[in-house]
Specification:
By secondary structure, the chain is an alpha+beta fold. It folds into two domains: 93 residues, Elongation Factor Tu (Ef-tu), domain 3 (Beta Barrel); 107 residues, Threonyl-tRNA Synthetase, Chain A, domain 2 (2-Layer Sandwich), CATH 3.30.980.10. The strands form four sheets. A seven-stranded antiparallel sheet has the order 6-5-9-1-4-8-7, with no helix packed on it. A three-stranded antiparallel sheet has the order 12-13-14, with helices on one face. Helix 2 crosses helix 3. The two termini are 30 Å apart. The mean pLDDT is 93. The structure holds zinc ion. Pfam families: tRNA_SAD. This is Alanyl-tRNA editing protein Aarsd1. GO terms for molecular function: aminoacyl-tRNA ligase activity; ATP binding; metal ion binding; Ser-tRNA(Ala) deacylase activity. One of its GO terms (biological process) is tRNA aminoacylation. InterPro entries: Alanyl-tRNA_Editing_Enzymes, Thr/Ala-tRNA-synth_IIc_edit, Transl_B-barrel_sf, tRNA_SAD.
Length: 217
């Protein structure tokens, strides 16, 4: 399922119906910090609250005035963790803690840019990345990277940021001829229906479930 937050990552308010509300004792994991939790997991018809995935942390926000402390992607559903239950069938207004989300969007698009330049221009493929509240990093497949390369990559990225290169989301079907082999390699079966590709100008195309800015600036 493509969630509303993946169709329009700038929606800050949205109404949707409650489909499920179940008790849960699953922990809250926020920027790697684990907290015990007892409350409810709520499934809605659709959501603007991003469920953690692809390296991007979950959103926090509200369903009416009930706080959402975590959103997780399980199967085809987004589970919204709350302290209070909501009645099935009610329509609620979703709101996002926008400052946190926008920071994630900027950092996630930044990671795509940095990883693309490192890989395409310096043969330094990204092996993992981390998006934190205070710091984010990209791990590359090399034991060391020279100061010179780091400076050149930084300058190159900053030039592209100054140029406000557009960032677009493209939706493809798995059998789309537009989709080359590299895009679908290693894709889990449940992702094979609709594929989301984040395009940074003509610099990069990358499969991703995350939310992104609309241009690099
Ligand atoms: Zn991504």
């Amino acid at each position: 399922m493509v969630f509303k937050c993946q169709e329009d990552s700038f929606l800050k308010e949205f109404t949707s119906k409650v489909l499920k509300c179940e008790e849960t004792k699953e922990s809250i994991v926020d920027y790697g910090k684990i907290t015990n939790f007892e409350g409810y997991q709520i499934v809605l018809e659709n959501t603007i609250l991003f469920p953690a995935g692809g390296g991007q942390p979950h959103d926090i926000g509200w369903l009416d005035n009930i706080e959402v402390l975590q959103v997780l992607h399980k199967g085809d559903e987004a589970l919204h963790f709350t302290k209070e239950p909501l009645a099935i069938g009610t329509t609620v207004t979703q709101k996002i803690q926008w400052e946190r989300r926008f920071d994630h969007m900027q950092q996630h698009s930044g990671q795509h840019l940095l990883s693309a330049i490192l890989e395409k221009e310096y043969t330094l493929p990204t092996t993992s990345w981390w998006l934190g509240a205070e710091e984010s990093y990209v791990e590359v497949d090399a034991s060391s990277v020279s100061e010179n390369v780091i400076r050149n990559v930084e300058n190159r990225c900053n030039d592209l940021i100054r140029d406000a290169v557009p960032v677009n989301v493209k939706f493809c079907k798995a059998n789309d001829p537009d989709l080359n082999e590299a895009h679908t390699r290693g894709l889990p079966k449940d992702c094979m229906d609709t594929i989301r590709i984040i395009c940074i100008g003509d610099i990069d195309e990358n499969m991703c479930c995350g939310t992104h800015v609309t241009n690099l600036r």
